Amino acid sequence: MSQDKCDDIRRALVSSLGCVPLCELTVKTLCREAGIGRATFYRHYGSLEDLVDSVYIGLMDRIGTSAGDHGGKGWIGYSGYMHSMFEIMHEERELLLLLHRNGMTDRFSTVLESSFGLDSIDDPGERYSTVYHIGGIVSFLKEWLDRDMVDDPDDIAEMALRIRSSMGRPVLLEP
After folding, report:
1. Of all helices (H) and strands (E), which one includes residue 169?
2. Distances from the Cα of 96 to the Cα of 1, 76, 126, 145, angstroms
């Protein structure tokens, strides 16, 4: 699907969720709003939940891409990673709040597990550390969303950095 069509579907999702809850939204209505046919939607998404997952995947892709935003040096350590993550989330505030109000924030955990390669980690200690890290991100995000994301993203990142465990680390940064 072209990026334009993806953007159209995303805009239609935001517009639609502003009027009706996700549980009442139909693919037909979303497609009409996006100006696409249902066959186009189903060629790329199996369901509205798959579309939501793709939103979170896109968010993670943006966070990963932000590694190149510092003169090719990648994130400036764990701090840069956290600041980039919360800044990008803040840029997607409207959509994230709509998804949260529709009970979809927990779907972000599954996307993070995939992004962090949880299925490929065999060492139990490393798996627990990664799951703990993911849970912390999702919990911070939920609290921030519950507060309508009024807190500054840099302040959220600094709070996260102050309370992370000694084993917590940015799994995305590792080769």
Report:
1. none
2. 23, 26, 29, 8
Of 57, 54, 56, 82, residue with least CA distance to 67: 82
Q: Are 68 and 77 in contact (CB under 8 A)?
A: no
Total count of domains within the chain: 2
In terms of domains, do 70 and 141 share one? Answer: yes
3-state class (DSSP) for residue 174: coil
What is the DSSP annotation of 84-137? HHHHHHHHTHHHHHHHHHTT-TTHHHHHHHHHTTGGG---HHHHHHHHHHHHHH
> What is the end-to-end Cα distance of the chain in Å, rounded?
30
* Pair (129, 162) in one structural domain: yes
Is the alpha carbon torsion for 98, 85, 164, 111 positive or negative?
Answer: positive
Instruction: Write down the mean pLDDT value for the chain.
Output: 84
Q: Do 62 and 103 belong together in one domain?
A: yes
Residue range(s) defining the domain that contains residue 107: 48-173
Query: Model pTM?
Result: 0.80
Residue 61: pLDDT band with limits 50, 70, 90? confident
